[in-house]
Specification:
Layout (H helix, E strand, L loop, with lengths): L8 H5 L4 E4 L3 E5 L14 H16 L4 E5 L12 E5 L8 E4 L8 H7 L1 E8 L1
Antiparallel strand pairs: 1-2, 2-6, 3-4, 4-5, 5-6
C-alpha cells in the first residue's frame, strides 16, 4: 500500500490538505507543511500524488482505487492514471482524473499550489 513513498509514508497520510469539491471538480490546495511529489519517468510523481490523495479520501469513508486508465479499457496513454470508485454506488461509478495530463502532471500543479481533478461518471 505504501510502496514508492518510502519511510515518509506514515507522516504523509496524517496530513490533511484543503479539499474544494464542486459537482465537476475536486481542487486539492497545497498548504504549508504538505508534501511535494516528484518524478516524471513513468508518471511517478503523479502516481505518488494520487496514492497519497486516495489514502486521504479513503480515510474519510470513500472506497477509491488508483489505477492506470488503459487497464480498465479506456483508450488513453498507458501511463495515465485515475482514482475511481471500487464498487457501483447508487447505480454509478465515479472517476477523478487529470484532464490536462499531456501538458502537466497533477504533482506539478500541486507543488505549485493546487491541483484540479475532473470528476466524471463512468
Amino acid at each position: 500500500m505504501l510502496s514508492g513513498l518510502g519511510a515518509y509514508a506514515p507522516r504523509l497520510f496524517s496530513i490533511m490538505p484543503k479539499l474544494i469539491w464542486t459537482k465537476k471538480t475536486l481542487t486539492v490546495v497545497r498548504e504549508p507543511g504538505d508534501p511535494k511529489f516528484y518524478g516524471n519517468a513513468n508518471a511517478a510523481g503523479e502516481s505518488k500524488f494520487l496514492h497519497w490523495l486516495k489514502g486521504i479520501l479513503n480515510s474519510e469513508g470513500r472506497d477509491l482505487i488508483k489505477k492506470r486508465m488503459y487497464k480498465d479499457g479506456h483508450m488513453v496513454d498507458d501511463m495515465q492514471q485515475y482514482l475511481r470508485s471500487r464498487k457501483i454506488t447508487n447505480g454509478e461509478i465515479y472517476a477523478l482524473y487529470n484532464n490536462h495530463w499531456a501538458i502537466s502532471g497533477l504533482n506539478e500543479d500541486f507543488n505549485k499550489g493546487s491541483a484540479v481533478l475532473t470528476i466524471v461518471k463512468l
